[in-house]
Amino acid sequence: MNGIKKKYKGLDPLPPDFVRIHAPLAFVVEEDCIGCDRCIPICFFDALVMVDKPEHKYKRVALVDLANCTGCGLCFEACPTDAFIWVPDKSNGGPISRSASAMTNGII
Amino acid sequence: MELSSPLIVASGPASHDVRQIRIAEEKGFGAVVLKTVCSAKYDEMRYWPRPRYKLLDWDKQIAGRSKQFTLYSYEQGYSGRLEDYWKFVEICKKKTKIPIIGSAFAGVPEDWVDLASHIEQSGADAVELDISSPHRPGSLEFETTFVAAIKAVVGAVKIPVLAKLALGPDVLSQCLIAQDCGAAAVTLCNRLRGIDIDIESHRPILHGYYGGVGGPWAKYYNFGYVAEAAGKLKIQISATGGVMTSEDVIKYVLLGASTVQILSVIMVNGWDSASTINSGILSYLNRKNLKSLDEIRGNAVDHLTSPEEIVRWSGESKKGPRNEWD
């Protein structure tokens, strides 16, 4: 999957640009992952697993289970190498808004 | 209600599915407050924005060893339908032995009663009224929601009713009113509504709205509120806010809390925080030669003095190099 190369770093406080069009999902950029496991316990939605990857420098990497990820953002905070990026969740049913102006006001 | 540990999982992302409740039991929690269910009027609370959490001032390089941080969140309600929640309570009761406390948020008293009654019928051991959620505009209105909601729910259910209150200068008076309304306990306190601004874009962070803020720093305010309330209340206090270690739990107990709810520490340090805190409490009990925390509950409040008792010294009015009298 081609991720949007716009990081939501630990110190970058705003959601990704596409947040009003697509629901954001977390995605691990494998070359940045150091297999440290820190993101695993912080995920409350069982959306992160470590998988073996013999060809990878660290032999194992974190993988986001896209079906379980709720885009909460906590794994971004746990990752010491900022290996997470946001990708659009194109399978999501679309935003729910209470008012017609919610989308344009960004309060979805 | 007898608990094996004073530790309770606070309502939130660590108690929104059955599997988590089983983990909580395994890890040694005394009870769980389930994720808050919102009445149909607040149906949009089921649909969560993304992202929802941000750790401010968090040093990710040292991860769990960060002692100071703020959990800034735009937390929402239980994501299933109302009937899913009743089922959720039922299954939690079947699959675990620890007490299950449902959590509800509504607007008008009839809706509060409806949620609480269903929670009771589904088998919950108690219900916590999330009167003070930092995420709903207007939900901090005391007179319109608070008094009416507690009275109505207490009149309608037999299980104990906990009122979760907001931090603020009137915590003690809210506690006393909750007691008069028949609440079995107060939960002190919810997180505060706060906001952080990105100075580059001039925008509030996350989704441009207020978030709930909490973190280790919050305990010092809350210790004060618990101390004030413990001296005056007959009902129990479930303390919550800023707990990272067993020392924090012991302090809340020394200030009179019966139970202590935790969440941020589970979020940042994982479920094992419970076993770490529980073993810290046990070694404290051993070291102090105590059988149970009951022996020390509220002891610190007894040592609370009054301004009149504080020894003051003369001499501050004397002339010195920093004073210019002439």
Can you give me a brief rundown of this structure?
The complex is a heterodimer of chains A (108) and B (326). Chain A is of the alpha+beta class and 108 residues long.
CATH class of the domain at 1-9 and 24-89 in chain A: Alpha Beta
Q: In CATH's first tier, which class of chain B applies?
A: Alpha Beta
Most residues in contact, chain pair and counts = A-B, 29 and 34 residues
Number of discrete helical segments of chain B: 10
Low-confidence stretches of chain A: 1-7, 99-108
CATH fold title of the domain at 1-9 and 24-89 in chain A: Alpha-Beta Plaits
CATH fold node name of chain B:
TIM Barrel
Please give the domain count of chain B: 1
Adjacency order of strands in the biggest sheet of chain B: 1-2-5-6-7-8-13-14
Question: What is the helix content of chain B?
Answer: 25-40%
Q: Which stretches of chain B are poorly predicted, pLDDT < 50 over at least 5 residues? A: none
CATH homologous superfamily heading of chain B? Aldolase class I
- Main sheet summary of chain B: 8 strands, parallel, barrel
CATH architecture of the domain at 1-9 and 24-89 in chain A: 2-Layer Sandwich
Helical content of chain A stands at 10-25%
β-strand percent of chain A reads 15-25%
Which labels suit this protein?
A: 108 residues; alpha+beta; two-stranded antiparallel sheet; two-stranded antiparallel ribbon; 12% helix; 20% strand; B: 326 residues; alpha/beta; TIM Barrel; four-stranded antiparallel β-sheet; 14 strands; globular
Structure explained in plain terms:
The complex is a heterodimer of chains A (108) and B (326). By secondary structure, chain A is of the alpha+beta class. Chain A has a domain at 1-9 and 24-89: Alpha-Beta Plaits, CATH 3.30.70. Chain A has three helices and four strands, in the order E-H-E-E-H-E-H. Chain A has helices spanning 39-42, 74-78, 102-105; strands at residues 23-28, 48-52, 60-64, 84-89. The longest helix of chain A has 5 residues, at 74-78. With 326 residues, chain B is α/β, with parallel strands linked by helices. Chain B has one domain (7-309): TIM Barrel (Alpha-Beta Barrel). Chain B has helices at residues 18-26, 82-95, 109-121, 142-156, 171-180, 218-232, 246-254, 264-269, 272-287, 299-302, and strands at 7-9, 31-38, 53-56, 70-73, 100-105, 126-129, 161-165, 185-188, 192-194, 197-198, 203-204, 211-214, 236-240, 259-262. In chain B, the strands form three sheets. Chain B has an eight-stranded parallel barrel, surrounded by seven helices. A four-stranded antiparallel β-sheet of chain B has the order 3-4-12-9, with no helix packed on it. Chain B has a two-stranded antiparallel sheet with strand order 10-11. In chain B, helix 2 (82-95) runs parallel beside helix 3 (109-121), helix 3 packs parallel to helix 4 and helix 7 packs across helix 9.
